User: What shape does this take?
Amino acid sequence: MKQKTYKSGSAPETLFSSPHDKCAKMMRNLAILTVAAVVIALPFLLRRPVGQTDWRPGDPELVIISPHNEAIRFEFSRAFSLWHKSHYGQPVKIDWRAVGGASEISRYLNASFVAAARGWWTGRGNDWPAGAGDTVTHPRFDAQHPPRLASIEGETAADAERRIDREMARWEKLRDLYQQFRNTDDARQFSAQIDLLMGGGAYDHQKAFAEGLTVPPWPSGAPPAGLFTDAEGRELLPATRGGELWRSDTFFSTAISTFGICFNEDRLRDLGIETPPARWEDLADPRYARQLGVADPTKSGSIAKAFELIIHQQCYIAIRAAGFSDDDIEHNEVAIAQAALPPGVMPEGVPAAYQRALEDGWLAGIRLVQRIGANGRYFTDSASKVPIDVSAGEAAAGIAIDFYSRFQAQNALDENGRERMGFITPEGGSGASGDPISLLRGAPNREIAVRFIEFVLSEDGQKLWAYKPGTPGGPVKYALRRIPIRRTFFPSSDPVIQQQHEEHLRYAVDNLADPRIDPYTITQHFTYHPRWTAAFFSIHSDLIRAMCLNASTEMKRAWTAIIHCDNAERKRAALDIFTALPTQPEPVTWQSAPRIAHATDRLEYMRAWTLFYRASYARALAIIRAGEKMP
Amino acid sequence: MNCGLSRFIFWSVSLVFAACFLAPLGVVIQGGFFDGGRFTLRYLIGVFQNPIYSEGLFNSFKIATGTTALVTLIALPLAWLANRYDFPGKRWISGLVLIPMVLPPFVGAIGFQQVLGPYGGLNTLLGLGPVDWLGHMHYWGVVVLQALGLYPIMYLNASAALANIDPAMEEAAANLGCKGFTKFRRITLPLMTPGLFAGGTIVFIWSFTELGTPLILNFTQCASVQVFDALKEIGNNPFPYALVFVMLASSVLLYAAGKLTLGRNAYAMQSKAAVATATRYARGGRGLLVALPFPAIIFIAMTPHLGVIATSFATPGSWYQSVLPRHFTLSNYAEALGHEMTIGSIRNSLLYSSLAVLINTALGIAIAFVVVRSTLRGRGILDALAMLPLAVPGLVLAFGYLAISAHASNTDWVKNSDAWKNLLDVRTNPTLFLVIAYSMRRLPYMVRSAVAGLQQTSVTLEEAAANLGAGFITRLRRITLPLITANLIAGALLAFSFSMLEVSDSIMLAQRTDYYPITKAIYELFQLIGLGQYLASALGVWAMAFLAITIIGASLLLGKKLGALFRI
Assistant: This one.
């Protein structure tokens, strides 16, 4: 066989292995084993001693589900255990449950509660009717009014009666289940085996509450003394601020986030943009085409909030442009709220022009978002990706949450220590949203959980967000760089608060006196009017999804053509079609939008909108192209 | 194989598969078929009525076709070269060829970005200015990147197939005057069909449902990304479940179609390759020519890996507008490997993955036996079903396991017993569910490898043993398994490597630090703002190094059979 005709030096090992080959082989095997040993040994060699804990089995435990990262979990675990020991004599171990981001947590909690309710309900001898899983946590189940049932065409009267009786019996079972579930908060009955939900946006916590998953830690109006107001009645944790809800009976914001624009200075220069963006409108500049990092509002409650604020600001601008002052707005909104008329109907004394300006502003807001979306390089599922990409120059600018950007900027310094990434909060364009904590129904360690809420909201807990590592009362390992919510951390004309603020300022990482950081100043320049945009929260996201994501290819093609078109007339005609709002299944306006948001067939709307936008973009492109072909 | 025994194996395997895979899948998928407790086909029909979803399915199909074609173009010549020639450095190179498939999750995207981004290494090296490579590649970008990540699967299967070919066949052909490409086309290629089919179907279904690459390149109009998008949505949306069902059904149909056209003509050889194929030693210029394709392909395919490695050694923020990071540091490693969750996560991952591979091997052999050696009626269905796990998005299966665990842990007998809690309640201990999840997700590799091995091995060898009085177990142990060891090891290596890198199940099922596998530890490090990508890269590189050593080490240290596989 050919195989055997090797020349010397390349003898096949199997037949003629010389001692030399054997030795080489052994050396090789040894080398492999050594490398393997080194790789495996590395983590052991680098292992740091685990922090000493005096927690022993039998001491209290607490279970928290949270999207917060390891740094936050580590610092709060350590500090709370110490705090608890000094106040109640025992250390506490926190068992953090991490199952992913806010949307995974929401799904997980819902499924856990349904499973717990099912075990409890069937364990007591009840059956589990079809659809019970959806009903238990349904945000809008009407337990007061039985459904109206009518006979179906072609059904005999007797059949119809039997069917309606059956349906009625099922509804009654569902109602009993629903009511008993929502009236029970006892770990011995049922429990998801989790005490607290911490982190995510206010939206996620409101949703959990609507699903019946969270309960008030204290009887309404009876929080521990000194927590919400001090002994002299100074408000330390306001319930609302600038129109934003910071706490309710069930959820309590522990930190504040604002939204803004992060940008890469080098990329801007390369694109020929001299001045960094300062307002949301700047992001609609065609020079940013395919350069913006944007997160998908249907996946992140906080990004959906950012988009809402962009639209909200356009409403404000339009109303001011129509000649109404801030006082007029205040006055009109109070009158409208008191009159409680159907949406869009103005009480006496409020000019129709006011409402018209609001509706025009809303439209302008949607169009602004559309143009920002058209400049988008992508719509990512994770809000933290945007500042990472911007700092790497992957995107020129993006919409981002403040603390992500501050962190990323700090970790992307150039040779001279210059931050190449900037971050601004557009003036009047961002409110201050809370990052809440809620107590879950049937919490197994309820008492400890309530203490934890108290701790996080107290001075001691709040220091962890803002202080430098190693400072007295601060974190020991990680700077968390989140903005606390407690009033005492920020400048005030009240000398008592101002004095506490100055004390905090000495140890804080960020300059808490900076008006762009201080949420109490930010909210002075920004008043959130829920009437303008709050009911549109989900519809904005769905519209953006249809407009910018589902029709993205067509959109980018049309947008590029429009940007590069020299003929003003055609450009305007194409833009008109490009920015038109869907007319199918019904025209989308400020008035119709909230109704659509509660439509049962949201997915059908999305489909119709997507088709609408694809067709519009194709038409806009055709208009520009038709011109190109002409001589 | 006797009928009673094959029936017993068939039913027990089906039962295990139904309980561990179909049940959790069904629990989730039913969300697309019920509306207020009532069965409905509205959503399923809606998938086809909605042009976005049909377009997404079509794009996924296009991606899969393109990727499979490109993978074959890359892997087949490499496997053939490695089978025919010896050349300098071959030992190392043929192990290295497999490394591109071990790209750790999350940080892979960072690797791409650092190399291909506007201010990345490539643009700086070529002095191109801020060209946005990743922003403008869509369909072709996805196909090329996927092919570069998936060709090792095809290479492994093709190599195993070539190793199994009895050189006597080709020698006989040569004696009859059939030479060169004709010999390859008429003799070699048909004989290796089972291996090609095995590799091809895995690559096809994988790329049909692959999520990561289209996400990195922002190619959102394909079915996998649409499912992911809808699953991550805040509101409840039944469409992803209906869409998953359609993806599953199309995968099975495509698989069946492939099997009818390609997989039917499997030629078993009278004798397995008792002697290794004659390899020619290529040296000098010829050796270089033969060897060159290997490092070239490996280097291109390792672009993201090299990006991750460089990131892991970079001082944060220092790799920017430069070919490589400007400042290097070891502190990322000190921090990531020294983190208190790291060692535990390594131990957990090894445990979960090894157990999963054991289960995989047993199930894979059993299924392959039924499929190849029995004449039972349902065997074709079992064969197709075993491919399903490839087509199920990880998130969907993870939701399913969570739901089952949540249901079980709320029964009284689990609530009141620590032992049961440890087994069935993922909140207490996720080991069982993670092992099941890993083994189910990676079952297709093992089944395909084992089936391919059995198909190429003539049943007459087992019959001869039976004639000499050997019982079933003896035959299995002394004849069949040794004959298909190469295939089994190929499958096990794939299953082990990918189990170590498994993402969705790990993130959702391992909820407590004590039970984190290494992928979740990487995820947790990645979440640390600012430093996250550097620490995650460091741990990712460790995982890569570990898997690389496992693969190369296995190819060098294990006995002759694996040697045959890698032509060493």
